[in-house]
Amino acid sequence: VQLQASGGGLVQAGGSLRLSCAASGRTFSSNAMGWFRQAPGKERELVAVSRRSGGSTYYADSVKGRFTISRDNAKNMVYLQMTSLKPEDTAVYYCAAQYGDTWRQSYWGQGTQVTVSS
Q1: Hey, CA dihedral for 71, 72, 78, 83, is it positive or negative?
Q2: How far apart are CA 82 and CA 65, in angstroms?
Q3: Fewer CB in a 10 Å sphere around the end CB: N or C, the chain?
Q4: CA–CA separation, 11 and 118 (whole Å)
């Protein structure tokens, strides 16, 4: 399974970006799809999750109300709509597809850079 993230770029504070993640390869049903990010010198953090069971979502407190995760299962796509971007949102964003019970059992995309200027 390969995941390809795209949609990153440079945006001014207050702006918006939409990240996309395309899954390809052998068919599988992920337990959850998620977006993580990693800023320079910091640990990778979970940003948003879309769970298959019940369709529930999770957002980190730092992005709640500004980011929205969505998925199109028919197209094997997951999206992250980011609005009201802040300089502290600057990071490399990764998508992940969880096939096990934890994120350690996941497929990962290559990451896309998001830079928010002040």
Answers
A1: negative
A2: 10
A3: C
A4: 9
- Residue 27: predicted pLDDT: 59
Q: Transcribe the chain into DSSP letters.
A: -EEEEE--EEEETT--EEEEEEEESS----SEEEEEEE-TTS--EEEEEEESSTT-EEE-TTTTTTEEEEEEGGGTEEEEEE-S--GGG-EEEEEEEE-SSSTTSEEEB--EEEEEE-
Cβ neighbourhood burial of 115 (10 Å; 0-12, 13-18, 19+): middle
Strands 77-82 and 17-24: what pairing?
antiparallel
Q: List pLDDT tens digits, range 7-63.
A: 999 999 999 999 999 988 765 677 899 999 999 999 999 999 999 877 899 999 999
